[in-house]
Amino acid sequence: MAAPILALKDVRLADGATMLFDGVDLALEPGIRASLVGRNGAGKSTLLRMLAGQIQPDAGDRFASPGARMVFVPQEPVITGATLLDYATAGGAAQHEAEAELMAFGLDPAKGTQGLSGGEIRRAALSRGFAEQPDVLLLDEPTNHMDIFAIQTLEERLGQMRCAALIISHDRAFLGRVTRRCFWLESRKVRRLDKGFAAFDEWSDQILQTEADEFRRLNKALEREQHWLERGVTGRRARNEGRRRRLMDMRQQKATILRESRGQMTMGLAAGDTSGKRVAEVKGLSKSFGDRVIVKEFSSRIQRGDRVAIVGPNGAGKTTLVKLMLGDLPADAGEIKLGTGLQIAYIDQARGELKEGQTLWDVLTDGGGDQILVRGMPRHVAGYAKEFLFQDKQLRQPVSSLSGGERNRLLLAKALARPANLLVLDEPTNDLDMETLDLLEDLLADFDGTLILVSHDRDFIDRLATSTIALNGRGEVVETPGGWTDFLEQNPGFFDSKALSAAPKGLSARAEARKPAAKLSYKDQRRLDELGALIHKLPAEIARLEAQLADPNLYSRDPAGFDRIMKAGQTARATLAAAEDEWLHLEEKREALSR
Q1: Architecture of domain 498-594 in CATH?
Q2: Nearest-CA neighbor of 408 among 423, 388, 394, 382?
Q3: Residue 469 — φ and ψ, nearest 5°?
Q4: What is the DSSP-derived secondary structure letter of residue 273?
Q5: Strands 333-338 and 278-289
Q6: Separation between Cα atoms, residue 187 and residue 195, nearest integer Å
Q7: Which of 32, 143, 243, 443 has the maximum number of C-beta atoms within 10 A of its C-beta?
C-alpha cells in the first residue's frame, strides 16, 4: 500500500468538557476516494477542518505530504469577489482553469457574486476547488442544493481527477458512485472499511450488533457482581478487594457507554382525518413567466396514499408546480380541483419558518408557553425536543447557532407534530445524516396519508416514490409510475439538450420591447435582458456543435477536434441551463413585484 498523503494519528480533541475525538486514526493515500460517515453532531466537519489544517488537535499528530496541495470546500461556502471568476482564481488557480471549471458547472465566469442561489454557491465553490488542481480534495456535503444533473457533473469531474478525496455526504447514490473506502466516525473514534459505500450498511449493522451483545454481557456480569457484593463482601474485604475494584470499573464502563450514547430519534407521524380519495386533480395546467413556459398543458391525478416525487433541473419550476397543484399560485390556464378534508403540512427548502432571533423553544411553541400539541396531545417542549436529539441547553439558543442538519430536524419536529393527511416536503434530505434519513424514509413509507416530495436525492426517490413527475425546464412535464430510475428507463432523452431548440425565439427582442416592471431594479432588469439574449443565442450554437459531432468520420479523422467540440457542447449546454435558471428566478421576482 502506498504511503499516505494525508493522515491523522491518535488524535484527540475536546470541546470544553466534551471529548469529540479520542484516539482517531485516519489515512488517505494518493488517488483514494473515501466517504466520511457519521451522525449529525458527531464531529465530521470538525474532523475535515482538522485534516485541512484549520484546527489543531489537543493531542496526536497530523501528517501532510510536503508540497501536497489541500483544498477544503466547506458545507456553507462564502463567495467573495466582484465576479465568479475573481472568486475562482483567488486561491491561486489559473484563469483558464477557473473559467473551464465554472462553465463545466454551468456558471458564467463574468457573473457577480451577489444574490446567488444555494445551488450556484455550491457549484462556484466546487469549481474553485477543482480549478486549483489539488492533490487532496476535502468536500463537506457537496451535493446540498444541487440538482441531479449538477450532481452528475460532480461525479464525472471526480472520476476525471487523480487527487485523493474525502467526502461527507448523505447522498447514498453519489457516494456509491464515487467512493471506494468508508470511514465511520462513531463514539469518538474512526472505523475503516476498505470497500465502497454499498457495503457500509451491512458492515456497520454487524458492528452495532456486536457492541449491543457486549453491552448485554456487561449488564449480566454487573448483576452477578452486584449480587456478590450484597452477600457479604465486608467479611472478605481484604481478600476480595480486587474483585470489588473490578465491579467499580464495570460500573464506570457502563456509565461511560450510557453517557456517550446519543440516543435514537423517535420520530412519529400520525395521519390527520382521512381525506377524500381524490387529493388533487389538474387538467390542461399551464403557467408561464413572461416568455418562459414553466408548465404546458399538464394533467395529473393524485389520490389518497400516493407518494409523488417531483424532479428536474434547478430553475425548471418544481416548487412552482407544487404551488400550482395546491392552489397557492394562479395558473394561466387549466383546471385545478383539490380533494376534501385536506390537512397539509409543508416544509419548504428555504426553511422559511425559521426566523432570525428565534430560539428552538420559540419555534416549537410558536413563541409562547412550555407545551406543544403533538398529534392532538399536549407535550412538554423539552421532552418532545429530546425525541429529535435536541438537548435541554439548546432550547434557549438561537436557531442561527444550529447546523444545517439540526435546522432540518427542527422543522421536521414542528411539521410532524401537526396531524396531516398531505405532507409536502421540498428538499427534505439536505444536511440530514443517513440514520435520520433512514428513519424519515421508514416513517414516510408507513404514512397513511399522501406525500408530495421535491428532491434531488435519487436513492431516496427510488425507495419511496410510487410515481415521478419530471420537468425539463422547457414547459414539458411528464409523469410515469415508479421512482427516478424508472423514469429514466421509460423516458429516454427527456432531459437531453437536443430539445433546447424549443427555447423561446426572439426572447431578447421581446424583453427589450417590454416595459420594465416598475419595481424591478435597473440592475436586475439589465441582467434579465442579458440572459434573454444569451438564451436566444445558445441553442443555435449547440445545434451547430451537434451537427459537427454528427459527422461519422470526425473522430477517426480528428480525435482532438472531436474532443474539443464535444467539450464545447457540454459547456454551452451547462451555460444555457444556468442562464435559464437565473432568468426564471428574475422573472418570478418581477411578476411577484408587479402584483
Answers
A1: Orthogonal Bundle (1.10)
A2: 388
A3: -105, 125
A4: S
A5: antiparallel
A6: 21
A7: 143
